[in-house]
Amino acid sequence: MKSAKSSLAEVTTKAPTGISGFDAITGGGLPRGRTTLLAGGPGTGKTVFALQFVAYGARECKEPGIFVAFEETAENIIRNAKGFGWKLSELSKTKLFFLDAQPLTDLILSGDFDISALMAGLDAKIKEIGARRIVFDALDVILTLLPDAMAQRREIYRLHHWLLERNLSAIITLKSRGDAASSIQMEPYNFMQFMVDCSVILNQTVVQGDVSKRSLRVQKFRGSGFDENEAPFIIGDNGVAVANGTSRIKRTVKLTNERVSTGLDHLDTMLGGGYFRGASVLITGYSGTAKTTLSGLFAEAACRNHEKVLFVCFDTISDEVVRNLASVNIRLDRYLKNGLLYLTSARSISGGAETYLVRIKAMVEEHNAKYVIIDPVSAWSKTGHDLTIKLIMDRLIEWTKSSGITLLCTSLFDEMSDQTNGASPLQISTMVDTWINLTYLVQNGERNRGLGIIKSRGMAHSNQLRELILSDAGVLLAETYSEGGDVMMGTRRWEKEHAVQLEKKAFDTNLERSRAKLESEESELLLRLKMLQDAVIAKQVEKAILLRSTEELKQDSLRTHAKVKNLRNTVTEMPKRKGRRS
Amino acid sequence: MKRRMKYSFRLFIAGDAPNSVQAFANLTEICKANLSDQCDIEVVDVFKEPERALAESIFMTPTLIKITPEPIQRIVGTLSLTSAALQSLGLEIIAA
Predict the structure, then answer these.
(1) By three-state DSSP, how is residue B7 classified?
(2) What is the residue range of A275's domain?
(3) Which of A279, A301, A302, B4 could hold A433 in an S-S bridge, CB 3.0 to 4.6 Å?
(4) Is residue A39 part of a domain?
């Protein structure tokens, strides 16, 4: 048991944290068998990070862990982590052991002391469960009880030495006051900073007045390369998630080829049947290019199929959306009444983008929606760091995909962004499966709405730009085709398509005919071959009979000859034979 | 001067660590000086009985638990700040 573990330690020198993004930054996780210092102000997510590390080790890496809680009670920590889906309660105490080490409130101090008792107790526990990972959460609580800086240093040193001797992958969390960068210069943090092999600083700042933004930075990592930049992170429903390009999608719902209607027949045709169920769709466009209208159509189509939809609108108040959509004959009120559609204005949600994500997830679960429409997601860019938004979108897409929810987002093009490359302000276009862009086409003094499919993964799709016509009768996607450089409307494309189809049909018929002809020729030849073969056999039989009768005749004549000779009693042959012998 | 009250203590120590040794010395001194040796002292070495330390949530050594008389009290440290230690044990009257 022990040898197997140490050989594992030799193979890999990092202990994966299971924190999405963080393992990528550090190239595999925290240093195995070494100590990591995790510093940050209150509420920066130190406990969640550390708990995730031991929980992941216990669940996924067969590395039992111990969580020493100096500040919060273990009961509180477990309760707070309930929302993360780590199923801590399922982990037995032999895999993850929580030790309540909060100093008693009525504790009386008298003179110098050390934490030998803690280490002795832990030693027993480590042996019992074979722990490989350990967390000392809020070590500062116990350090501040020590009489002076010397004693603090001594205990830190003792603890570090103890951890190294036991080859434990450890996290020590420390509270820092104010901004982490300056407070880690103070005792005892600076001392620890030098001592440990890895140091991570967590930050929480408020941007634009009221929006909180979390970030972390790996400050040091002995013997390993790491991304030195500050990386935004969120605390989502799986715990800490660090912004990083890569994300793993754990699919809980089977991938299907099922299509869902876009709400526009012609758009369905252009996409070869509609969006894929569970896909993520992005509709971009300038203000007034009918992004919300397309969202409304999609919602209406889904509701018509008795499926539940969550529609989150950012820019307008929800009843305005219903009224405005009714003007183009999209009637959502009946679905609002029968509960298929859940319309909410994001104005009711305040806080960071992280909050939106959590709230949207909660609403989807509450409503059991199979479709989520967010109009527009670009509103999120007002609520935090660009990278954070990208991360949130990433999480949203990952989550909707894994749960088989079809996601439709609209995004407003910034006036400043480049029209030609169609860069979405959130740069989420690379993440989505289908990207539809809405533009204005100015032609003959008219400003018409155009719709084009920029990309659609895994399906054939039209590359044509089409005209979107909104009227009180509804929404229509007109056919267009280009001739002589002009985009024109007409039925020629349909005619052409029809002609091609006819041609193909004729060709197919021809092919079939030739094949039939060849086949009949072939069978005729085969028949002739068979007849000839039969004739050959007949001839062979005839020949055999002939040979046999010839032989019989010959024998017969010999016998006759002998008989005749006998009858005649002649010995005419004898002298001849004698002569031959002499 | 004699107290009828029986004192019983449990002292958690970490082997022969200097502060543990000092705590034991200070405790015996307190007993001799203030309690006329009318006290039981149980010494628990956390290295020998780590389970007891865990069970009683003893994380710091030396830790003294005053079991009787009530209330149960814990004092962490060498007990070298004698007057403060005495006060917290409710012995200041005797000392005076």
Answers:
(1) strand
(2) 259-482
(3) A279
(4) yes
* Nearest Cα residue in chain A from B60: A115
DSSP assignment of B59-94 equals: -SBSEEEEEESSSPEEEES---SHHHHHHHTT-HHH
Judge whether A526 lies within some domain: no
Within-domain flag for A284: yes
Separation CA A372–CA A375 (nearest Å): 10
Distance CA A559, CA A324 (A): 122
Per-residue pLDDT tens for A405-428?
899 988 877 544 444 444 445 567
A319 and A273 both lie in a single domain: yes
Chain-chain contact of A101 with B81 (C-beta, under 8 angstroms) = no
A121–B contact, CB cutoff 8 A = yes
Between residues 78 and 117 of chain A, which touch chain B (CB distance below 8 Å)?
A: 99-101, 103-104, 106-117
For A505-543, write each residue's pLDDT tens digit.
889 988 998 999 999 999 999 999 999 999 999 999 999
For residues A238 and A269, state if they share a domain. no
pTM value is 0.60
B70 CB within 8 Å of a chain A CB: no
Count of domains for chain A: 2
- Check residue A492 and give its pLDDT: 45
Considering CB atoms only, which of B14, B54, B81 is closest to A116? B14
- Chain centroid to Cα A152, Å, comes to 47
DSSP string, A201-213: EEEEEEETTTEEE
- 3-state SS track over A91-141: CCCCCEEEEECCCCCCCEECCCCECHHHHHHHHHHHHHHCCCEEEEECCHH
- Same domain (yes/no): A149, A288: no
Residue A112 is nearest to which of B19, B58, B63, comparing CB atoms? B19
Same domain, A306 and A424: yes
Which of B20, B51, B57 is facing A124, going by the closest CB pair? B51
Q: Does A263 share its domain with A332?
A: yes
Tokens of A345: 């204005």
Q: Per-residue pLDDT tens for A468-517? A: 888 888 888 876 655 555 554 434 445 555 777 888 888 998 899 899 99
- A188 lies in the same domain as A325: no
The reply to whether A515 falls in a domain is no
With CA atoms as reference, the chain B residue closest to A70 would be: B59
